[in-house]
Design brief:
2 helices, alpha+beta, three-stranded antiparallel β-sheet, two-stranded antiparallel sheet
């Protein structure tokens, strides 16, 4: 029977680092209105009322593939600063969201 090989930890002075990796999604909604300003007002009103009938028709995503920054434990910035940085390596996905047709109940 062979002896089990024991692994030795060479360096146990490891520090903790935090690496941000972002994904940002933008949903586009179709709003029928008289003007751009009217569309914005109508959209914001619908959101404020919490009406459930808004469905996105398109989604654009920016997905970070490699990070370019690391933070130590005491250096982790606030949420705004995590997003307010250069993203060098990313993919963009643009896709149309197809909703099922409205079905009507037949009596």
């Amino acid at each position: 029977m062979e002896k089990e090989k024991k692994l030795k930890l060479i360096n146990n002075d490891l520090e903790a680092f935090y690496i941000p990796c972002n994904r940002i999604d933008a949903d586009l909604y179709e709003i029928r209105a008289i003007s751009k300003q009217h569309a914005i007002q109508k959209f914001n009103y619908i959101l404020a009322e919490g009406k459930p009938h808004l469905n996105p028709c398109r989604r654009v995503s920016l997905i970070e593939r490699q990070s370019n920054i690391a933070y130590k434990t005491g250096e982790v910035p606030n949420a705004l600063e995590i997003f307010n940085r250069a993203i060098d390596f990313y993919d963009i996905h643009d896709r149309e969201i197809i909703s099922p047709p409205n079905l009507k109940l037949i009596h």
